[in-house]
Predict the 3D structure of the following.
Amino acid sequence: MSDLTPTEAAAELERLAAEIARHDRAYHEHDAPEITDAEYDALRARNNALEASFPDLVRPDSPNRRVGATAASGFAKAAHGAPMLSLDNAFNAEDFSGFIDRARRFLGLPVEAPLALVGEPKIDGLSVSLTYENGQLTRAATRGDGMVGEDVTANIRTLNSVPHTLAGPAPAHIEIRGEVFMTKADFLALNTAQEEAGDKIFANPRNAAAGSLRQLDATITAGRPLSMFAYAMGQASARPAATHSAWLEQLRAWGFAVNPLSRLLATPEEAPAFHADIAAARATLPYDIDGVVYKIDDLALQSRLGFVGRAPRWAVAWKFPAEQATTVVEDIAVQVGRTGALTPLAHLRPVNVGGVLVARATLHNEDEIARLGVRVGDTVVIQRAGDVIPQVVQVVETAPRGPAAWQPLTHCPVCQSLAIRAPGEVVRRCTGGLTCRAQVEERLIHFASRGAFDIEGLGEKTVREFHADGLIASPADIFRLPAREAEIATREGWGALSARNLTAAIEARRTIALARLIFSLGIRRIGEQNARLLARHYGTYENWATQMEQAVIIGSEARSDLGSITGIGGAIADELTAFFAEQHNRETLAELRAELRTIEPATAPAAANGALAGKIVVFTGTLTTMTRPEAKALAESLGARVTDSVSKKTDLVVLGADAGSKAKKAAELGVRTVSEQEWRDMAGA
Ligand code: IVH
């Protein structure tokens, strides 16, 4: 060790910091360690020995200075026992009835069957998950991406509404979920104090709550007036109640604050009146709410209903109408999106809408401009609902009419390529593809963004600057930035430390889950959910890419296989194959691939090992103990694929009552058939 020169030691410490950070992420975030514990310990030991010999060279991002997996945010990562999901929204009574109808249909309940619900105000705060072991609070985590959050245990312990010990008997292990919030009055008082002290002003109570909870120094959190309403259960070793309403009572008994306005509704028909009551009370409540959450009361029905995508089938968030304001359109500009879509944007005289200053609103597309009849100078009503981009709702006062109404652009405002509107589509698109700087830039922003590669320190502004200055032109270039760390350090606004942190953040992302990689490419219609479906179906990067290249040929086996994936429709398949049909895209992807390691999709343990994993199943005839959608969802949760028709590839046909031609076909092809009861046994239902 003493043989090393300081320069050599510094280089090795740097390499170790990046490498250890990468293994931390693989271990904590992806549950997919690439090296043994002993190898990991050896890296740490080497790092410690070097730091001991060269104390002056200890890095700010030294593995010993970081907690757990995060260098940049300063919080350790905390994996949730059960995912923290979001909720589907309803915006009116019709959407709400749609939710009830779907649930009843899924459960096979007649329309008139009573279905008790609990209505709870939807608190506009941030959700947290609290783990109790033998009644003691052992960990508190933010939602994060739903699978992994940040460990904020020390901060949460400062809240009065969170018991450190559950009052009364409790399961050995339980995750309790709730919403942390700040009251409107406390928010105003905090902002006044912040302003006096010359500190950051918060935009709204929710931001103030989030900013106050996510303090590295928990004594700051302790000085902030935060509260929490408990409302849900995550992973638990035993189920402490049979209904949601009883569960809320249990939470109260353990010492949590439960929203006093929550109410058990005997039937869904009671919901609209309850909704109106809460909406009327909204303005007088001491805290912000943005709707009412309705949850099916019976927990056994909840577990039968399960989840679709990231939201439960047993709950819905019926949102209050959006908040509106009136202002003047100062200009109409056109923005070019990641997939070339040209979106007209209204530049507005800034106006306060529900506590947020709004200076731009989307006009969606040219038809919408025509429908609204909006021109520069007009006074318009704008609205914002939740986190969506503010939009122009109507023109209330027209400016004296100038020469002409706004006209759609015939060419891309950035690359001047032809802009065309395909028949049947509302969106006009730039045809420049990757020759259009705007499209390239938006794709790079998407690539580095949170749901995608999530590269800390490479936010929208930085990507735009690096792209403009020629540091990055394609995703693979991002992984070449570490080699240019010294150059980056000399840029305006940068220094040795921030450049080094960026290197570490990039290195930490060289290992990536296949689904994230697919999502990151920004292919039209391939959102997170479709990316997950693809990753699960194809298993490995190589298999996926090869199959996609073959699927470009219409009529190929790869193409029909792609079309058979439940949830991947024809339009999605077309976008994928259009992407792979372009040589430029294939090259860009191959270059990127060379920089990365991918993690194959994690299948649920039951799915990975169970008898149904990877099997193709067909249901036919009338099932008597569960509905068709329920059977399909169950099969899919066990790793099977459900298709409609019987072929040689089919592994199993489940015969309900009065099964007809499909049963015959199965017999002809020698495909295994089982009764409904046998199927239930196989599925463990
Ligand atoms: S239940 C699986 N209940 O809304 C369902 N969520 O849009 C778990 N929220 O992430 C959530 N008040 O942060 C539930 N009474 C309430 C809520 C509530 C606010 C938030 C929560 C969640 C988001 C979903």
User: Anything to note?
Assistant: The chain has six domains: 6-65, 77-317, 322-420, 436-509, 513-600, 616-683. The two ends are 61 Å apart (CA to CA). The pocket of 2-(butylsulfanyl)adenosine is lined by residues 85-87, 120, 122-123, 127, 179, 231-232, 293, 312, 315, 317 (CB under 6 Å). The CA atoms of residues 294 and 314 lie 8 Å apart.
